[in-house]
Amino acid sequence: MKKSANTASLRSRLLAGAAAAATLLAFSAGTASAAANCIKGDRKAPYTIGWANIYSVPTWMKQTEGTISAEVEELKKAGLVKDLMITDAQGNAQTQIQHIQSMIDANVDAIVVIAGSSNALDRVISDACDKGIAVVNFDSLVNTDKVTAKINTDSGEWGAGAAKWLSDQLGGKGKIIVMNGPAGISVSDDRRKGAQPVLDANPGLEIITETNTEYNVAPAQEAMTSLLFANPEIDGVLSLGGALSAGSVMAFDRQGRDQVPITGENARQFLELWKEKGLKGWATMQPNWLGALSVYTAVQALEGKDVPAFVKVPLPVIDDSNIDSYLARADQFPADGYIYSDYDQALFDKLLAQ
Amino acid sequence: MSAVSSTGWLYGAIQKRRNRGLGGLYLVVAAFLVLYAVLFPGILSVGGFSKFTQNWFPLALVTMAQALLMLNGGITLAIGPLVSLGAVIAATTMEGVFGVPGGFVAVALAGLAIGAVTGVIVAHLRLPAIIVTLAGSFIITGVALILLPRPGGFIPDWLSNGLAGHTPVAFLLLVVILLGWKAFLATPLGLGIYAAGDNPVGAFRSGVPVERAKVVAFALSGLLAALAGLFVAAQTGSGDPIIGTPFTLNSIAAAVLGGVGFLGGKGTMRGAICGSLLLSVMINVMFFLGFPPVAQYVAQGLIIVGAVAVPELLGAWRARR
């Protein structure tokens, strides 16, 4: 009697165990099917991350690498990451292919990449994806969809937001100058294209002329200086890059002209001029923490979480209401650097839950 | 002593003398290859070997294209743009009516024609090659950008997988091309390229058609660079109008590293190929050693200086003994 009861209880326990195992199995099967692209579930923490940069020299890249290293340190503390390998292709897409191939050979668990060419990396990246490596691509994107996730802001919205603010400032009419980055560069094209519908909707805005310069202060200042001589009346400047805005403001200043409303980017130099000259300004940014977010996303995917194939990061906006909070942190950033908005894990989780 | 055996003996002696200066470079390259194999044993597998040689292959081709001209006393700054143009032509013609064969022919003809025209301008108008090819590089870049303004185009998957898949096809092609070069050097015209580079007047008096040798050298160089572009297109699965740019400087660096002189006639193709292999394997070795990017810039410079210095020091040491 006692024995049978025991057996019965044992059997029920076994059954319960089996049922639990079955639920667990079903559950894990459920998560497996929901797993992110490229992930096979055979890789275990702590992970090795490869950061395949195209070119490490510009300040924006250095700051981005800073957020990646900081995020890796955090994840190391949590026992999720053990190593970060960094490569710099020195602007050569062919070398970047070689680096990513080496990362595959070294069997890293995740690759975070800014592409040096929108097409050239497609094959090597899909090889990595086939090997179950989490590939997260941000800022400059590849063509192939065989990646775990792509992460970026929308350059079109950048242009539209800037044009909208300027139009509101000028009451929809006035003479403006448009400052663009280099011709033939997709980010510069895309920002300009985004501005066009807003400009079309406000026919009162008259574009005097447009400039195309490198994203550097000196050439922008030079271009604006000669435009100031030629145009006695300028009501606003639609600048689609931070260093361009700084160059423009300095040109106005040198010529003793009154400053006009101007758009820009989170370049420290522009934000400081904005405050110093009491400008009417507006700025947005390509946040450097896209790098940190990419590492976080890769690790989340490796941990079996589902992550969206495309993470669209909304553009943070800087205006008179919050510029002081940015400038208060200015000394933590290089003089020619970008003061990016604050970020934390909660923000990342929110972005990945889209 | 019969004439045949004396030429055989002479040939051997000449080859030995030409190899001597390269001993140091061979040592450095071998050391790097061994180090690479220790760090990443997977290189010894078919797949690993294939992928590594694929990444090296286009650089080897453009280095040949550059060395060919430098041996002839010339130089070209149009290598990179020609690679881009080759890639762009391949990616835009292979979906046309003539398909892949049509693409191959178009790329080869473009390379040969551009090279030959450059050669004619340099040889017959007697303009400096460096200026002509610099101007040519702008024109070729422009044409590539007109043909394909943004990266794109189409390369059939089977071609990509065939040339740059998990088989060492690229390496075998390189062996075939090197054998072809060896055979070409045995012809009067092939030898004439060297001779005209070393001593144009002497070569002319010995009956070498110096101008023709120059035009042929430029045409072959253009062909090799354009074919490198076709390979890059296959490797990446698409065309990119600016992907070749870094090849110009790298091809010169590899050739000089391999002991090819700027003044013509001095150096060997095998040395140049070794130079390109060193530039390529260096990238992978530095990766596996875990060098941070900043250290990679420095190390790269030191390795190149070292690779040039070691043969010199070895020579000095040998002379002192």
Produce the secondary structure layout:
The complex is a heterodimer of chains A (354) and B (321).
Chain A: H1 2-34, E1 47-53, H2 59-77, E2 81-88, H3 93-105, E3 110-113, H4 122-130, E4 134-138, E5 149-152, H5 155-169, E6 174-180, H6 186-201, E7 205-212, H7 217-230, E8 236-239, H8 242-254, E9 262-265, H9 268-276, E10 281-284, H10 290-302, E11 310-312, H11 323-327, H12 345-352
Helix pairs in contact in A: 2-10, 3-4, 5-6, 7-8, 8-9
Chain B: H1 3-20, H2 23-39, H3 46-71, H4 79-93, H5 99-124, H6 129-147, H7 157-164, H8 169-185, H9 188-198, H10 200-205, H11 210-236, H12 247-257, H13 269-288, H14 293-320
Helix pairs in contact in B: 2-13, 2-14, 3-8, 3-11, 3-12, 3-13, 4-5, 4-6, 4-11, 4-12, 5-6, 5-11, 7-11, 9-11, 12-13, 13-14
General description of the model:
- The complex is a heterodimer of chains A (about 350) and B (about 325).
- Chain A is α/β, with parallel strands linked by helices and about 350 residues long.
- Chain A has 2 domains: about 45-155 and about 290-315, Response regulator (Rossmann fold, 3-Layer(aba) Sandwich); about 155-285, Rossmann fold.
- Chain A has helices at about 1-35, 60-75, 95-105, 120-130, 155-170, 185-200, 215-230, 240-255, 270-275, 290-300, 325, 345-350, and strands at about 45-55, 80-90, 110-115, 135-140, 150, 175-180, 205-210, 235-240, 260-265, 280-285, 310.
- In chain A, the strands form 3 sheets. In chain A, strands 2-1-3-4-5-11 form a 6-stranded parallel β-sheet, sandwiched between helices. A 3-stranded parallel β-sheet of chain A has the order 7-6-8, with helices on both faces. In chain A, strands 9-10 form a two-stranded parallel ribbon.
- In chain A, helix 9 links the parallel strand 9 (about 260-265) and strand 10 (about 280-285).
- Chain A starts with a helix and ends with a helix.
- In chain A, about 45% of the residues are buried.
- With about 325 residues, chain B is mostly helical.
- The two termini of chain B are about 35 Å apart.
- Chain B has helices at about 5-20, 25-40, 45-70, 80-95, 100-125, 130-145, 155-165, 170-185, 190-200, 200-205, 210-235, 245-255, 270-290, 295-320.
- Chain A: InterPro entries: Peripla_BP_I (IPR028082), SBP_2_dom (IPR025997), TAT_signal (IPR006311).
